[in-house]
Design brief:
Order of helices and strands: EHEHEHEHEHEHEEE
Mean pLDDT: 93
Low-confidence stretches: none
Number of domains: 2
Radius of gyration: 16 Å
Distance between the termini: 32 Å
CATH topology of the largest domain: Rossmann fold
Strand order of the largest sheet: 3-2-1-4-5
CATH superfamily of the largest domain: HUPs
Number of strands: 9
Helix content: 25-40%
Length: 221
């Protein structure tokens, strides 16, 4: 089936697209929403403009849409982007990286129902530690570009998701009850390489901002 993948550049949306392709779907476009609101309920924001480089690395067309990021209203901007994808690329379905957020999944489902599109959620209800392990098994190179939960601080920025990371994430989940894969917004990620990429991306520069337990790292690739 011809599908468009909702794409933030992070691990979940990228891995979901990868799994959808393995299932036999044709990823004909990526759909990214650039939110001006760093606390958006729907959209990933750190280094979001760098998805253009990821799309180039994958050789897949990218549709972008800006939004002010106001709750619920931002969904209309997402719908505009999906409508563009349907008209331009004749997509029949949408791939999402939703894992446990009923807020996100239900709204995307309703939107796609209205547009006559099937929703594909390859990661839905997946165990978060298993998700992290699967990223490594499938040769995903992922770095942390944002943190927003105690005890995470700026020292986590730039870290790769590897076996040591998974061990520490599991320990923090046990001690502080945070989501080990960042599903609660505890951290944001960026994919530098994976089997979908034709070339690996290199971090050429970075800028860190924030304070206390909320930090972001804007990167140049």
């Amino acid at each position: 089936m011809r599908v468009g993948a909702l794409f933030s550049g992070g691990k979940d949306s990228t891995f979901a697209a990868y799994l959808a392709k393995k299932e036999g779907h044709e990823i004909v476009c990526l759909i990214s929403v650039y939110s001006e609101n760093p606390f958006s309920y729907m959209f990933h924001t750190p280094s979001i403009s760098r998805v253009e480089k990821q799309a180039e690395a994958m050789g897949i067309p990218l549709i972008t849409q800006k939004t002010e990021g106001e709750k619920e209203i931002e969904l209309q901007d997402l719908k505009k982007a999906i409508v563009k994808a349907k008209k331009k690329y004749d997509i029949r379905g949408i791939v999402t990286g939703a894992i446990a957020s009923v807020y996100q999944a239900s709204r995307i489902q309703k939107m796609c129902d209205e547009l006559g599109l099937k929703v594909i959620n390859p990661l839905w209800q997946k165990d978060q530690i298993e998700l992290l392990k699967d990223l490594i098994k499938n040769d995903f190179e992922v770095i942390i570009i944002g943190v927003a939960a105690y005890p995470l601080d700026d020292s986590w920025l730039g870290r790769k998701i590897d076996k040591d990371f998974i061990k520490e994430a599991r320990d923090l989940a046990d001690k502080y009850k945070i989501n080990p894969a960042g599903e609660g917004g505890e951290f944001e990620t960026f994919v530098l390489n994976c089997p979908l990429f034709k070339k690996r991306l290199e971090v050429k520069g970075k800028k860190i901002s924030g304070s206390k337990n909320s930090y972001q790292m804007e990167i140049l690739v």
